[in-house]
Amino acid sequence: MGISDAVRFRIAAERTGRVARVVELDPIYCDVTCRRYAALTGETAVLATTGESFEEVEKRLAENAMVPAVEAAE
What we know:
With 74 residues, this protein is mainly alpha-helical. 54% of the residues lie in helices and 0% in strands. The protein has helices at residues 5-16, 27-41, 54-66.
C-alpha cells in the first residue's frame, strides 16, 4: 500500500512546525492519514462536524455495518 500525498504533506508540516490543510479524496487514505498522524503526534484526529474522535467514528461505522438491513415487506 502506498502513502498518499496528503499524509506526506501533513507529516512534513508537523515536523517543521507549519500548518497544513490537506484533502484526501480516497476514504482508505483518509483512514491512513488519521492513523499516521495519531502515531506521529500522539494526538487524536477529530471529525469537525460532530466532534467525534477518529476511533469513535471508526467504532460507530463498524457497529452500523454489522446491523443487518431491514428488508421491505413484499
